[in-house]
Amino acid sequence: MHVISNEEKARILTQALPYIQKYAGRVVVVKYGGNAMISDELRGAVMSDIVLLSLVGVKVVLVHGGGPEITATLNRQGIQSRFVGGLRYTDAETVEVVQMVLAGKTNKDLVVLIQKMGGRAVGLCGLDGGMIRSRKLASRDDLGFVGDITGIDTQPILNALANGYIPIIATIGADEEGQVYNINADTTAAGIAGALGAENIILMTDVRGLMRDLSDENTLIPMVQVSEVPALVKQGIISGGMIPKVQCCVEAVRRGVKRAVMIDGRIPHAILLEMFSDEGIGTLFH
Q1: CB atoms within 10 A of CB 72
Q2: Are the C-beta atoms of 153 and 167 separated by less than 8 Å?
Q3: Which among 50, 92, 175, 231 is placed 20 to 30 Å from 271, CA to CA?
Q4: Secondary structure string (H, E, C) spanning 174-229
Q5: What is the pLDDT of residue 277?
Q6: Looking at the chain, which runs of residues are DSSP E strands?
Q7: Sequence-ordered list of residues with C-beta below 8 angstroms from that of 71, at least 6 positions apart, any chain
Q8: Other Cβ atoms closer than 10 A to 170
């Protein structure tokens, strides 16, 4: 293992300074999911990156999903998971499990992990302070209690940031009647980034980014203009589960977020590699 000398450490920190200055005091939304949530090693790397960013003055907002934990809990209760067009069909029984797992276990596990690493975190969900108002998602197929966002009140997030906490947000919302909805985490992250006027949004995925050929990582497309997206969908380069992720990036940029980046969450410290280098990693939408 290569041991870094004190001189090298100093040089690395000096090189990071312009990027730290660029992001200090700015809001960065990180959408966290996929393998980076399942692997202990990757989860530790993500949380340490977030604590580091917070300590150098970046206002990090972490938005998380929790699909694997929800599926595992449903299995234990003998409830079959069913997906329609990449979205979880959510009946009355399932939405209770989603609320319990996302807002309870997954959310608080992340809070504990950040605090263990010396950060200060507060766990929130879309129900807190009426943060995420939602309604039933209009769709060709009935998805049950899958929601669409009708409004976001950023005050609970801003309060947490103003007091030096890292807000960790579980993606459920409710309508005026108090009906709870399961909301796609990518969609929620884009909505929150837009509502906060974030500097950038980082989507953690299980691929290198957007590739011309899914089986060849050398075909990574490093930069995409939002106007190019419809043509890429037509060509089949953006397809399947990649469509909602790309739509999330496009939506964030249209809402005024300066940078929307899709990065590979399987790479340790991918967030720092993206933010603290000129090349970055993954695919940038602008």
Answers
A1: 13
A2: no
A3: 231
A4: ECCCCCEEECCHHHHHHHHHHHHCCCEEEEEECCCCCECCCCCHHHECCEECHHHH
A5: 83
A6: 27-32, 59-64, 83-84, 87-88, 121-125, 132-136, 147-152, 166-170, 172-174, 180-182, 200-205, 223-224, 259-264, 283-285
A7: 81
A8: 29
Q: Which residues contact 86 (CB under 8 A, 6 or more apart)?
A: 240, 241, 244
Buried b (16+ CB within 10 A) or exposed e, 207-223: bbbbbeeeeeeeebbee
Give, as one character, the DSSP assignment of residue 80. Answer: P
Q: Which of 41-50, 151-160, 216-225 has the highest mean pLDDT?
A: 151-160
Cα 210 from Cα 213, distance rounded (Å): 9
User: Are 197 and 28 a contacting pair, CB within 8 Å?
Assistant: no
Residue 248: CB partners within 8 Å, gap ≥ 6? 31, 186, 187, 189, 190, 201, 203, 260
Residue bearing tokens 């497309």: 221
3-state secondary structure of 66: coil
* pLDDT digits 0-9 by tens, 7-63: 888 988 888 898 899 999 999 999 998 767 888 888 999 999 999 999 999 999 999
